[in-house]
Structures are given as C-alpha cells and as structure tokens.
Amino acid sequence: RWAADPAQRLSALCTAHRPRGTVLDLSCRDGHTLRAAVTFSPLASQGVAATVVVAAELEALRGWEAQLAMLQGLATESSVGLTIFDTDMRVVWGNVSTDLELAGVAQYVGRPAADLFPEGEFISRHHPPDEDQIMEHVLTTGEPIMGMHYRGRAPADPVREHVWSCSYHRLVDARGEPLGLFEESLDITDRYRAQERLSLLVRAGKRIGASLDVRRTAAELADVAVPQLADEVLVDLPPAVIEGRQPPTGSAPGHSLLRMHGRTPEEFRTTPVSYPPSSPQALSLATSRPVVDAARHGSADDPAPADRRSSLFVPLVARDAVLGLATFRRSSNPDPFGPEEQTLAVELTERAAVGIDNARRYTSQHAAALVLQRSLLPQHLPEQSAVDVAYRYLPADSRVGVGGDWFDLIPLSGARVGLTVGDVVGHGVHAAATMGRLRATVRTLALLDLDPAELLTRLDGLVAQDSESRADDGLGDEALGVTCLYAIYDPVSGRCVWASAGHPPPIVADASGSVALSALAPGPPLGLGSLPYENVELSLSSGSVVAFFTDGVVEDRRTDIDSGIDRLAHVLTWQRCPLEELCDRALSTLPPGPQADDATLLLVRTRRLGAGQVADLELPPDPAMVARARTDTERQLETWGLSELAFTAELVVSELVTNSIRYATGPVLLRLIRDRSLLCEVSDNAHTAPHLRRARRDDEGGRGLFLVAQMSQRWGTRYTGSGKTIWAELAIP
Fold it and tell me: How many C-beta atoms lie closer than 10 Å to residue 194's C-beta?
C-alpha cells in the first residue's frame, strides 16, 4: 500500500497517455519503508487493467544503470582496448578502441588471435611469450594474467612500433561454464619509452667511458644507444683525438675526420669523412648544437640508401672543445627525433665526450710515460768479450700503465761486466722516473767497482733517504717497493758474483743444458734498511746461459711465480739455441691476453778469455823489479803483435808497479789482458788508493798517475778482499 495517499498524483500517473515514472516510499508488511522506483505504463487497448505498474528497489536499480553506463563507456569511449575471444581463441567482439587500432574489428571476427598482430611479440618474460599459450592457461585454470608488455605494429599504424600492457581474464556463464576470455590492452608506448630512456641513462653511466680508450669509448656509445634510441650510431673523430693529442682549435673539425669502425682492437679501423659547409653535420659542428635531419637521401661519403631515414647529429663537446660528431640514425621509425629523444642523445653524447677526452688525456700521458721509460732504458747494449747478450722488454697493457722495470749491462775494469735488472712497484710517470734515477745510480755505483752486496747496501741507503725526503709528497711509499739484482761476471776466472734485493735470482743453464736454481733467498727490497745483503758466487763454464728477469716474465693473475720459473727453466734447457730465439721462446710461453705488469728478460751467454789473452807476472816488493816488469811487458806485446803499444804500455806499467812497490808490504801482481783494448792491472795488498794531482814545477814526483791518465782511455782503482787493483786501459790501434 502507499505510505502516503496523494490521490490527485496517483490519478494523474494512472490516466497518463505515456509511460511515467516516479520515486515512492513503499510500506512493507514487516513494517519498514522501501524507497522504490515506480513506472506507470498505460495499455494501448481497452481491457480490465488500463495501466501496468512496475516497481523496483531504487538503490539496486541505480547500481544496475551505472554498470550498464560503464559497459557502454568501455565499449564506445574508453582508451582501453577490449577484445572478446571464444573458447577456440577466435575474435568475437572488440570495443571502439580495438576497432580503431585494427582499422576495423569486423574483418577479424572469427579469426585467431595471432592474426591481429602477426609480427608482434611479448617482451615480458615472466610468462610464456606465446599468446596462444597464455590464453590456453587462462581458459584452463581461470587464473588471470595481467601486466604483460607486448610490442608490435598496429594495422592502423603499421610504420610505428607501439607497446601495450595486456591482461587476460576468463568469461563464464551463470553456471560457471567458460564462454571464452577477454583481453584488455592499454597503449603505454610513451611511458615505456620514458622508462627505457631512464634505464638507458643508468646503463650509460656504468658503461660509457669506463675503458680509458678512445676507440672503445666510441664503441660503448653505440652499444648503449642501439637499438633503444637509434638503429645505428656513427662516431667521427679528428686523427689528433684518436692519437691522444689536443683536438684542433680555431675551427670546427669538419674537414678531416675519421669514422670509427669495430668494437675490438682486432676489428678497429677508420675511414676518412668530410662534410660540405652547407651540410647539417657541418652546421652541428659549427654551432655545437644538435641538428635533426629527417629528409636525408644519401651523400657522397655515405652512398647507402637513406629513404625513410631520420638522423640526429650531435657534436662531441668536452671542456669547451669540439672533439668530433656523433650521428644517430634510425629507419624503423621515420619520424624525426623528438625533443625528449634529442635531450637523451645529447646526454649520452656528453657522457661519451667526457669519456673520450679522458681517454685522450690518458693516451697522451701513457705515451709520454712510455717515451720517458724507453728513453731511460738502454737503447742498445755495448758489445763485450765477456758475454753475448739478448733482451726483451714488453710494457704492461695500456690500461694498466707504464711500469718501472729496468735492465742494464755495464762494462767494468778487467774485461768484467756488470749485469743488473730491477723493478719499481707501481705504474705511471712516477714509476718510470724512479726507475730512471735508480738505473743511473746503479751505473754510477758499479763504475766504482763495488761488489754486488756493497753496491746494494749503498743503494738501499739512498732509496731510504729518498723515501723520507719525498714522504710529504705522498710518493715515498712507492719507493719501498723497489727490487734489484746486480751481478758481476769475470771472463778471466769464469767467476760470477751476484746479490739480490728482493728480486728473483737468476736461472743458470750450463753448457751441458742442465738448469740450476739458486737456493739462497733474496735479501729485503731496497729502502727497508733491515737485513744485510749477501753475495752468491758461481763458477760458470764458457757457453753457460744466465737468465735475469722481472716478475712479469714468470708471474701473472692466473699462474703463480713458481710455475712461471719452472716454465722459464724449461725453455733454458734449449740453451744451445741462439739467444734471440731463446728470448722469443721464453716470451711465447706467457699466457695470452693483456700484460698486467712489465716483462723484462735479459739473457747472457758467458765466454772465457783464453790463456793466450792473459799474462800474469808476480813481482816481489823490490824497486829493481820495475825494469823486469817493463821488459816482460815489451816481450808480451811483441808476442801479441802489439809492438806499437810497447812504449806507452811500458811507461804505464812502470808507473803503476813503482807506485805499488812503494806502498805495498807483499808481492805485486802485474796482469796484462788483450781484449778489445789492452788492459794493464797491478794488484797489491795495500788498501790506500793513489790520487791524481797536479805537481808543481819544483816537485820531484807526483806526475806518475797524471801520465797514466793522459796516456790511457780509462784508469781507476778497485778494492779486493786482499787489497786493491790499479788498472789502466789502452786503445789498440
């Protein structure tokens, strides 16, 4: 019954000639009031009932009407694509958005889902990538699959690539039986590309410029930008930048650029390119701004067809200098690069430009350090009668930097030879400079005729002082990593004496081919000033091969030093081979790949001076023996065919023997050696060395050593365990 009885209103609704509706409050039997929507519909024919009244709960009706409106909106106005498939996964229906993407959904009704986007693919990998498998899974299990990213070209826009977010749901009837499934898709191309640009920048920050190599940095830019931003990236640089020199100044480098090709040192090559003044490339270089070219049709230096190609030219600028040009090209999307894409390309190019400039500076510094190091190493080793020599020096990989290895051969008195090899820990210009100072110091100390242990002791003190003086500069710690080995070989006796300051000892292969390793552990590295250094004495037969080396020859990241020493020792069993061949054999056993440290190898094959090249005469400390020394010298030179030197040699021998007899308390030994020059040596048991001085006019003596110095090429004094030796070297005409 009516909760209120407005007779006039009801009468009007019942007698109306068309359907009318209103909202009424109805009183239910249980006593509560129900608000309902009531519709009065008059009957067209006369009958018992002239009006039909329909009532429904107002709230439920409004909800139903809202759902119908929503469905109508999804079908006709929503940007979300809705597509219904039957249980055979064939198209049944699509809304307006789907109809627009497919350029008419009617033509696809009854066709399988694969026909909609035949070249598309799922780029989300957390579900099966095949669309049929996804639909089959949803139909079978009823589990929805949501948020799958799908990439393809819509029939309505076959040129541009789009990305959609797709979800799949099963449709069931009132009994719960499957009717099919529906797909909802939303075009997220812009959002997806924005995320790609962000991830591209993150990836660029990690990859571009990490190699400190100009060529590799150019390749890294292409690796990062392709294919997300462009289908191809070209980098053109001036030759000066590639070589590590300053970029050209004064004008944009548009006329002499080299295009980079290849991503590895083996593949790397360049081709020359130049741009006319009116070209967009020249404009970009001249203005230092990006230039978009959407209508290119090829050029003289780029004959490849460029139809439907969009290009973006971005100058490589770092520290206000134009280093080159980066070209971004794409053919899959012919539209010009948009503002966001241009901003991204500029950001990537700026990172690459900084990386290229850093690599250029590093290349320049590395080249300078390498030139410095090689200038400090011996350019050639002097020929000696004592030994045959061959050597190899391999610098560390350029990414590591120049190291501090050095080696040297030092001619000494008495036909002896000093051999040294050393290593400064660290890399760079400072290591090379430290190496140069130490090599010069070793040579200076060696010419004082110090024995190996004494030489290393003095060198240790100098290194320690240098470390203390440079500690304030933060460079002193590196000097504490200096190792050095010094050896002296005497071809007369075959005696070899060496001492080591933290350096691997030499490996010796005698004339029979047997290889011996030293059992004595090396002393401490230079600069520590702790334990003393010890001499090791060996007797070497003629033809023995001695290998001096740095740890780069026998040690790397993959093998330990013991394995490397065994490998080198095995090579030395072929000691009858020429030394140059032995060097090549030794270095060929190094593991392939970049060197982590300098590798220095010095091989010497010993010789012995024959008995016919050495003459010894022992004299008692009697002044009358000076005449005998002159006579025996004249006779020996006549035997050697050196009579032209007789007068000079007799005078030198006379002065040296006279000086020794005057101050010695025991026998005096005269030794003549015929080598590349004539060597005259006088040894005694006195430890006082004579000094060269200029005698006054009224002095009765003091001119002997002055005459010796004037008549000989070199002269000097060396100390022995039993006294000293004064020597003079005369040139053989």
Answer: 13
Q: What is the pLDDT of residues 107-128, one digit of tens each?
A: 999 999 888 888 888 888 776 6
Residue 261 CB: number of other CB atoms within 10 A? 15
Distances (CA, A) of 236 to 233, 266, 286: 10, 19, 15
Three-state DSSP at 44 gives: coil
Q: At what angle do helices 214-225 and 189-207 cross, to 10 degrees?
A: 160
Percent helix, percent strand, percent coil in the chain, to nearest 5: 35, 30, 35
Q: What φ, ψ does residue 483 adopt, rounded to 5°?
A: -115, 150
Cα 630 from Cα 114, distance rounded (Å):
113
Tens-place pLDDT, residues 184-220: 999 998 888 888 888 888 888 888 887 888 888 888 8
What confidence tens digit (pLDDT) does each residue in 523-552 have? 889 888 777 899 999 999 999 999 999 988
Write down the residue that tokens 């004495």 correspond to. Answer: 537
CB 381 within 8 A of CB 548: no
Between residues 393 and 429, the one the model is more confident about? 393
Mean pLDDT of 669-679: 92
Q: What are phi and psi of 17, to 5 degrees?
A: -90, 0
In terms of DSSP H, where are the helices of 44-188?
A: 58-76, 96-101, 131-141
Q: Which residue is it, tokens 């300098």?
A: 598
The tokens 């799908």 sit on which residue?
150
Lay out the sheet containing 404-411: strands in order across.
Answer: 404-411, 417-424, 482-490, 495-501, 536-539
Mean of the pLDDT values across residues 375-382?
78
Q: What is the DSSP letter of 690?
A: P
Note whether 377 and 392 are within 8 A (CB): no
Exposed / middle / buried, residue 227 (Cβ in 10 Å: 0-12, 13-18, 19+): exposed
Q: Which residues, 6 or more positions from 381, have their beta carbon under 8 angstroms from its beta carbon?
A: 389, 391, 408, 409
What CA–CA distance (Å, rounded) separates 64 from 70? 10
End-to-end Cα separation, the chain, in angstroms: 149
Residues β-bridged to residue 503: none
Average pLDDT over residues 259-282: 84
Closest CA to 309 of 289, 337, 286, 269: 337
Strands 599-606 and 387-394, bridge-based pairing: antiparallel
Among the listed residues 193, 510, 547, the one whose alpha carbon sits nearest the alpha carbon of residue 391: 547
- 0.90 surpassed by pTM: no
Q: Work out the percent of the chain whose per-residue pLDDT is above 90.
A: 33
Count other C-beta atoms under 10 Å from residue 103's C-beta: 13
The confidence band for 462, taking pLDDT boundaries of 50, 70 and 90, is: confident
Tokens at 499, concatenated: 């001492």
Res 74: pLDDT: 66
> Reduced to 3 states, what is the DSSP secondary structure of residue 389?
strand
Contacts of 606 (CB under 8 A, 6+ apart): 386, 387, 489, 491, 494, 496, 540, 541, 542, 543, 544, 545, 546
Integer angstrom CA distances of residue 401 from 211, 392, 704: 13, 18, 54
Q: What φ, ψ does residue 171 adopt, rounded to 5°?
A: -105, 130
